Prior knowledge:
This protein has helices at residues 31-41, 46-56, 61-67, 69-81, 111-121, 178-181, 197-203, 259-267, and strands spanning 2-10, 13-22, 27-30, 87-89, 104-107, 135-138, 143-144, 149-153, 159-160, 163-169, 173-174, 185-192, 195-196, 218-226, 237-242, 245-251, 271-272, 277-279, 300-305, 309-319. The chain is α+β, with helices and mostly antiparallel strands. It folds into two domains: 2-92, no CATH class; 104-319, Alpha-Beta Complex (Fumarylacetoacetate hydrolase, domain 2). Strands 1, 2, 3, 4, 5, 6, 7, 10, 12, 14 and 18 form an eleven-stranded mixed beta sheet that branches. A five-stranded mixed beta sheet has the order 8-20-19-15-16, with no helix packed on it. Strands 9-13 form a two-stranded antiparallel sheet. A hairpin with a 3-residue loop joins strand 19 and strand 20 (309-319). The termini are far apart. InterPro entries: Fumarylacetoacetase-like_C, Fumarylacetoacetase_C_sf. Residues 103-314 form the Fumarylacetoacetase-like C-terminal domain.
Amino acid sequence: MKLGRISVNGPDGAEARLVLVVPEENRVIDLKRALHEQLVKEGSSRESALQYANAVFPGSMSAAIALGTPFTQAAEKINAKRPDAHSISFDSVNWLPASDPSVVRDGLTFVGHIKGFHEKIGAPPTPNLLKVPGYFKGTPHTVIGHEAEVPWPGYIQYMDYELELGYVIGKRAESLRPENALDHLFGITIFNDFSARDCQAVEMPIGMGPTKCKDFAYGIGPWITTVDEFKDLDRIGMEVRVNGETWGKGDSSNKLWTVGELIAWASLGEVIVPGDVIGSGTMGGGSALELDRKLQPGDVVEMIVEGVGTLRNTMGQPIPDLWWPEERKPFM
């Protein structure tokens, strides 16, 4: 089952709606409207049916996933029938990020990218990568969806993409173990960790993790495919194209840490909640840096993941006249 979020015009302006995605028919089904109609046909009053449909299919994917069985069962029932009513063609859809996570987490697990990245920056990988499944936390407030333009702060000179899977959490948990962590995985989406490589070179030696080199944009979409549709999480085909040209192609194998280990580590001593998205880390060859290339304004970046779909974004124009701090004099 494939589930997404779109924006529709409501009586009070734009509002988020959850949709069942039927890619083979190039349409989505508005889940709230479909459930409302179904309940009215079964005898519910329109007012009560609307209240129930609003509760089961809110505009927040995180809130819907947190509802658990009532949400998934209602969606599966509509998926079984796939009614034509309340359908919207892909051509008319305004996509929102597939999930609205409470926080963005992004891992570093693919051996090929770890090697390729460090070869390009001329430094060996830290041995600490072998000790724990490292990840960083980013802001959820700059998450963008399918077909959205990517904001480009003018301080960025070296813009890059990063092709990743997004692991969408299905249940609240803390201090999981790898053997039960996958029970808390709701589905897979595509995660594009846009990166300012020039800013990254300045920030990372500080030792506090990435900030302005990452938090300007994270692509999540186009939708979520529930985990039951994947036979092998380590053999998912992945590809990135820029302006129609393939720049990287591979799959989700050759990871230093398993999906279960990454999720368990993220939950260790803290809480993960429904709708949270954990980036898999970049596939080997899944960044322009590894190819000695970089993005330009107006470039169209497409990320294709087998079993999910294509996340497409266009790079915006650099935003001018932004403040940037003046370098301080040495104090040591």
